[in-house]
Amino acid sequence: MNLTIDIGNTNILFCLFVREKIIKFEKLNIQKVNKRNVFKIFKRNNIDSKTKILVSSVVPKTKREILEYIQCFKIKANLLSSYVKSLKIKTNIKDKKSIGEDRIVNAYYANILYKNTPVIVIDFGTATTFDIINSDGIYDGGIITPGIELSLKALSERTAKLPLVTFSKTKSVIGRNTKEAIQSGFFWGNVEMINGLVKKVNQEKGLVSKVILTGGNCKYFKGLIDNVVINDDLFNAKGLNYIINKFIDGYEHKKR
Q: Which residues, including other chains, have CB under 8 Å from residue 109's CB and lie 6 or more apart?
């Protein structure tokens, strides 16, 4: 059994695999990270010394805490940072160390699935990130915009009368009250932003890129973004699992 642990700015995703199959996943809000809650997740999922664990993180402090808790189980945890060189990712980004581990995995796994094909991976997290892989399989760079939930919270906190609303898909562009107006603005605003940025990237590079949507809110955009080949909120976890199987377990994945 494999366990991937993806530590983000808002949540930690624990995802269990048997070979390539997901058998269970759980999210833990980063504000609730403590020894007791991590122990509960490990115990109810029967995590033991035979479990192969890979940890990816964009939050160093939380990563240290998680590793301390895992050590209490006397289980070895592998770090994605130890395998980055083995991934042999080619990139045009000047400062390679500045690339977040989540983005490294997205770019790497997208290129595994669509070898030497232009791909844009859009990840809806605390920030909405666009990672661009060119037709030579090179990680060409990216785009970062404020995340949906973060922006909704900021709008509510920085205004006197606008409420905090839940992000959701809306049928009508025009809202008939304040709540509907905010929901429409965020939903359709993101649809237009994403399609617009994808179009600009393709125009700039002279390409037609395949698009992968992932992250917590990707499901809301099904059928609304051009040229989407994958819409999967667990895409990053599957990429981490691929790395476990290939570099830690030596398991050969089935061909698509």
A: 235, 236, 238, 239, 242
| Distance, first Cα to last Cα, the chain | 22
Looking at domain 88-239, what is its CATH homologous superfamily?
ATPase, nucleotide binding domain (3.30.420.40)
Query: Structure pTM?
Result: 0.95
CA distance 142 to 125: 15
Dump pLDDT digits (tens) for 53-86: 999 999 999 999 999 999 988 899 999 999 999 9
Assign domain 2-82 to a CATH class. alpha beta
Q: How many Cβ atoms are within 10 Å of 22's Cβ, its own excluded?
A: 15
Q: Which DSSP helix (H) or strand (E) runs through 148?
A: helix 148-157
Contact 142, 103 (CB under 8 A): yes
Report the alpha-carbon distance of residue 248 to residue 35 in Å, rounded: 26
Domains in the chain: boundaries: 2-82, 88-239
Cβ count within 10 A of residue 206: 8
d(CA 11, CA 126): 9
Sheet holding 119-124, edge to edge: 139-146, 127-133, 119-124, 210-215, 228-231
Place of tokens 């905010």: 182
Catalytic annotation present for 226: no
Q: How far is CA 111 from the centre of its chain?
A: 15
The single residue of 6, 102, 123, 131 carrying the catalytic annotation is 102
Read off φ and ψ for residue 230, nearest 5 degrees: -140, 130
Query: Do 2-82 and 88-239 have matching folds?
Result: yes
